Amino acid sequence: MARPESSAQDRQRMRERMIDAARRLYLDRGAEALSLRTLADALGISHTLPYRYFGNKQALLAQLRRDAVERFHAWVLERDPAGADPLTRLRALFDAYLGFARRHPPEYRLIFASDQPPPDRYPELLAARERMFDFAMDVVQDCIDAGLVQGDAREIAHAYWISLHGLMTLHVAHQLVHGCRFEQLAPALLERLLGPLGTSNAGRSRTRKAAKEQRR
C-alpha cells in the first residue's frame, strides 16, 4: 500500500523543525560540524530527508543566514526611535549594529562569513540583506535632508557600515588584543564617524549612555 503524501502543512512543519535544529547545531558546534547528515541524526530522521528540503549544505546555511539577517534587522528596528530627530536615529542605528554583534557573535559571524557563496545565488537571502541596508540608507537620507551631512546616501551608508563592520568583525573574532576593549572603542568610533555632528554635549551624553547599556 502506497504511503500517503504529506500535506503542505506537514512539510512546512518539518522544514521549520530542520531549521531550528540546524540553528542549534550551528550555535553549539559551528558551521564546520553542520551537515545534512548531522542534522538528520539530531532529528532522528532518514539521512536522505533533509536533501528533499535543502538540496545541500550551502542551501541550508543560506536559510540560516537569511533568518539571522532578519533577526538582526528586527533588532535594529526595535531600537529605532521612530519620529525622533535624524541624528538621534542615526546614533541609535550605530548602537543597534554594534549591540547585535556584541550580544550575538555567532550569528554575526554566520551572516558575514567570508567562505559563503555570493548572496545573489539565494534571492531570498539577498532580499533580506537589501531590506536591512535600505533601512540604514533611509536613516542616512533623513540626515542629508536635514542638512546634517552632504553626499550620496548609499555611499555614506556604505562608509558607515564598513567602519562599524571592521570593529564588529574584530570583536567577534576575539582580535581586540592591543589594549583597547570593545566598550572603549565603540563610543570613540561613533564620535569619529559623526565628526562635527557628535561634538554637542547632548550627543556625547547619548553615546556614553549607549556604551554603559552595552556593558550591562
From TrEMBL:
Keywords for this protein: DNA-binding, Transcription, Transcription regulation
Organism, as annotated: Sinimarinibacterium thermocellulolyticum
Signal peptide: none
PROSITE patterns hit by this protein: HTH_TETR_2 (PS50977)
Ranges in coiled-coil conformation: none
Residue ranges the UniProt entry marks as DNA-binding: 35-54
Domain HTH tetR-type, chain residue ranges per copy: 12-72
Domain of life, per lineage: Bacteria
Protein name (Swiss-Prot/TrEMBL): TetR/AcrR family transcriptional regulator
Pfam families referenced in this protein's UniProt entry, alphabetically: TetR_C_33, TetR_N
